[in-house]
Amino acid sequence: MLGEMKFNNFTKKIASNSPVPGGGSVAAMGAAVAAALTEMVANLTIGKKKYVLEQEEMEKIAGLAEKYREKFSRDMDRDAEAFDSVMEAYKIPKDTEEEKRSNAIQSAAKKAAEVPLEVARDAFELMKWIEIVVEKGNSNAVTDGAVAAMMARTAVLSALYNVKINLCSITDQSFLRKTESEVKQLEEGCQIMERKILAKVKL
To answer: How far apart are CA 122 and CA 92, in angstroms?
Structure first.
């Protein structure tokens, strides 16, 4: 699994002449880092006398961030697998029944768009919890929360680029309209949310 590789090995794998892992897996990795930082800020708040009133909320956020972190790590592989499926679909001989080949390509392309869209969706949801740890968490770790917000925003935008490139291969107009609408909302939303969170960082 990509998420279990040593960092140097992972970056070497990215740097190779293989198309996977690529930007989609890196977007998921960025989201996992954002979740880890969120979890860290919450854990640095738990048990501190100064933040006794926030403890229950921070415990909840730490648990949620852990689940996000683990899911994003799995998404690194899911994205690579989805891309591999697209490549396999295009390898189907052109002399195969045209409709069968076309359906295989369309199905694979949709999956390859849906995985990073899910990453973007989840990374945006994570930002709501990042806002809370920045506002209420341990003030000594507020910059870690800020970095989490920036990483999450980058993860959303990066994942959405991977959605867009896969949409170029999809002919289902209903799917395209629905997905393009959500992409636009997430692009705008994550940048608004980042600015809102960073405005709360007082140094």
So the answer is: 33
